[in-house]
Amino acid sequence: MGAGSQATLPIVVCCTQAGMSVIAFQREDPMPRIKFANVKFPAHNTPSVYDLEVRFTKHLDGFRKLIHSHNPSYMMSDADRLKIKRRAKAYLSAVSRKSGMSHLDDKDRETLEVFRNGAELVAIETEHQADEIASAIHAEMPWMLAATEQVWQDMRASVRRGDLAPRLRPLLLVGPPGIGKSHWARLLGEKLLAPTTVIEATGEPAAFSVTGNQRGWGTAGPGKPLESIISSGIANPVIVVDEVEKAGNIESQKGLRFSLTEGLLPLLERSTAAHWPCPYFRVSFDMSWIIWVMTANSLDGLPAVVSQSFGMPKNARLLDTLIQRAPQTARSQTALMGQTDLSGSYARLRSRQE
Q1: What is the mean pLDDT of residues 263-292?
Q2: CA torsion angle for 127, 319, 256, 205 (degrees, to 10)?
């Protein structure tokens, strides 16, 4: 079956006296794969320097026999051996340059080896599966209806377009502490069967946690989103940036400033994220499938470039603000209308409660 084809997704059901309930989705077909790292991996049978030296020595020996000036290999001059060694290294250097990984050490090349056959995508095969996922999320957190409804509509739209995996717009959940914004994001990853990583913007250098940092810094390494993909092999994890409005700037000893916003925006824009250059590996990766969820306790303190997007129609597709209020009691579940028109969602929620 092709990577973009659709298939009926079998399910496991549990039959009890109370009836029949869906337990879990089971995948028969392999998950779709995409080319994730913009490099060319050398063939597994690429010879070593020693193999090439042996091959070149035999070739030189045969060539000398052919021209009647046979000189056995053990009688070769130091100049011959040096020339053979140089040509063996030059060959492997050309192969390395062609791969786009000539600047990496052996450890980093081994790390990227997991992407030799691409990265997998957690897919949604049918609109019915999207309905089941949204229903499960709503059953646990009904007061987050607006966020759940947007994800539901995005999942269904992806299925209709024939996308390899759900294309979910980045979400910014704004509301007071304790309403379950981060829990909702984790629940989304759980129901999608996608790995979830939470970045605490207040407890770590958020800019470097998202993008990673280049060699030369004491904590050089890839960012958490890329680390998640490397460890899981899945290119569309759920990445949660918690309390994004509190993320501060980082300043180097040379006076250079690094902000979370500057690092985050290229990853949120799908066209740039598809060829995102990692500052640590200095290799481009397809980060456009990541599912981004950001949380904030208020709009105050958000970077200007982000807050401006709330009221600008041209940026409406970049970030959607969903303002939620926590239920005061177990029976009080209320959604406040914010930038996104939640009036329809609010009416449906009230009708279900009644």
Answers
A1: 92
A2: -60
